[in-house]
């Protein structure tokens, strides 16, 4: 009986510590949510967590945006930029990973080493050559600098992640499929892709978060306000007036991260499974 009580006490302490850490991690998000219902004066003068009264004025005023540009346009622009980028990244990187994992071809190790070495290049080193190249091709003020590299698998991190996942899938499945008459594309589409679902979800979710929150590259390649994504739309809301309405900024920031939070909760099972199994080598 004493042992059972001791184990129950230890378990209760563990849950209490986990709840405390969870609260500390979620506190900034909770504070931002409550700040959307406060006025500017109440945000900076009141120490209370709860607002004096709840209203949606910050959401209504913030959604109108800046000038003639509303936040609905920023959301649409973000979807136009993010959706094809994520889809093309998942498709192209999975095909390249399949090639490295299942085929033998001349200079395979050299090509793989070159691909992995590009991971060591910081973005600040390649931003100027990319800008000059995209400017020469007339891609500035468009979403092509984000979409076209994704179409041609220019993300070695995702290739390596999917490659590691494919190495954990037995090659006997490929051989059995070939005996049944499947070619390489059929093996990839019908056998391997369904098994790669956790890795595909992980890569897609990573790319979605990175592209959705990307501020630096959007600032470099896009200059027209009517083509701004959410990251730049939030920034110009700070520059629009000398007196910043922080409750409106918090409201729009909350709405901008809410789709990512919801998506993560719905796909976290695949995300965790994909990240935990990409290090397995068969």
Short description:
The chain is mainly α. Helix content is 74%, strand content 0%. The chain has two domains: 57 residues, no CATH class; 218 residues, MetI-like (MetI-like fold), CATH 1.10.3720.
Key terms:
14 helices; mainly alpha; MetI-like fold; 282 residues; 2 domains
The largest sheet, given as strand count, sense and whether it forms a barrel, is:
none
User: Roughly what is the average pLDDT, rounded to an integer?
Assistant: 86
CATH superfamily of the largest domain: MetI-like
Fraction of residues in helix: over 70%
CATH class of the largest domain, named Mainly Alpha
What would you say this structure looks like, in words?
With 282 residues, this protein is mainly α. The protein folds into 2 domains: 57 residues, no CATH class; 218 residues, MetI-like fold. 74% of the residues lie in helices and 0% in strands. It contains 14 helices and no strands. The longest helix has 34 residues. It is flat and about 70 Å long. The two termini are 46 Å apart.
Q: Secondary structure elements and their pairing?
A:
Layout: H1 2-35, H2 40-45, H3 57-63, H4 71-102, H5 108-117, H6 123-137, H7 144-151, H8 156-167, H9 172-179, H10 184-195, H11 197-212, H12 216-221, H13 230-239, H14 246-277
Helix pairs in contact: 1-14, 3-14, 4-7, 4-8, 4-11, 9-10, 11-14, 13-14
